[in-house]
Structure to design on (264 residues):
């Protein structure tokens, strides 16, 4: 069964077709990667899939629920968790407090318990804290629980964002270039983490420039060009597709498959 269904999605900005009659489905419990040359429409597609933009035509359904054009908080409530290419971290908080902000959908919000600090509220807060600590350990940040976020290295902050997204208990996790700006070792840590999430049954949509990472962790890959589908298939099928090689390298396809690229 497909968890995410994108059906004939289109978005124009003036005369530019940023997304052009695009359809695809993401099966549950898979890693589905979206790649493409610069200007291929990936950012616009993500914004359509998360409620930042409303499409001109087409529909988007998550877990059977039509969320086309709905605001971002409705996407979150329906089960979408997201990280961002540019860090969205609260640097005036600790690492743990950052993760706990992701638990807001599951917090006790009744007025009376909040005013009088009743035991139900204290128990809920303790449970949220414990869950946040567990998530930090899950992403390899167990030693950073009480650390100020502004003192953490960049690679750790990338994993902190993933922990915060997981705190909302999403059905689908959208990772927007989680390896951007990371060195080889840090990128490998993200690789291991995505593999572990997949083994745990999480459905992941990955948008990434690091082609080695994409080819190693993906079940299926969608390649965009000028807002439209250029190719879709397994990593091996996509890497060997002459159209993909030409789109990335700007030359006619040779016998060498695409295994590494610097632009996506």
């Amino acid at each position: 069964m497909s968890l995410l269904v994108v059906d004939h999605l289109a978005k124009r900005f003036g005369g530019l077709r940023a997304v052009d009659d695009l359809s695809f489905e993401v099966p549950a419990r898979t890693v589905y990667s979206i790649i493409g040359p610069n200007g291929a429409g990936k950012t616009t597609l993500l914004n359509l899939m998360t409620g930042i933009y409303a499409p001109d035509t087409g529909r988007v359904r998550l877990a059977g629920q039509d969320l086309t054009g709905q605001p971002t908080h409705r996407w979150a409530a329906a089960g979408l968790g997201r990280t961002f290419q540019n860090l969205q971290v609260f640097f005036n908080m600790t690492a743990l407090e950052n993760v706990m902000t992701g638990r807001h959908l599951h917090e006790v919000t009744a007025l009376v318990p909040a005013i009088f600090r009743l035991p139900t509220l204290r128990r809920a807060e303790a449970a949220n804290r414990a869950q946040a600590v567990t998530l930090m350990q899950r992403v390899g940040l167990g030693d950073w629980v009480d650390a100020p976020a502004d003192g953490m290295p960049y690679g750790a902050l990338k994993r902190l964002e993933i922990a915060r997204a997981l705190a909302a208990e999403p059905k689908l996790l959208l990772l927007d270039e989680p390896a951007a700006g990371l060195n080889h070792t840090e990128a490998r840590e993200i690789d291991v983490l995505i593999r572990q999430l997949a083994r745990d049954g999480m459905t992941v949509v990955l948008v990434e420039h690091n082609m080695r990472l994409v080819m190693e962790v993906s079940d299926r890959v969608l390649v965009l060009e000028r807002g439209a589908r250029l190719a879709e298939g397994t990593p091996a099928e996509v890497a060997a597709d002459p159209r993909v090689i030409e789109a990335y390298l700007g030359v006619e396809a040779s016998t060498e498959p695409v295994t590494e690229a610097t632009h996506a």
Q: What stands out?
A: The chain has two domains: 1-79+170-264, 91-169. Residues 119-138 form the longest helix (20 residues). The chain has a mean pLDDT of 88.
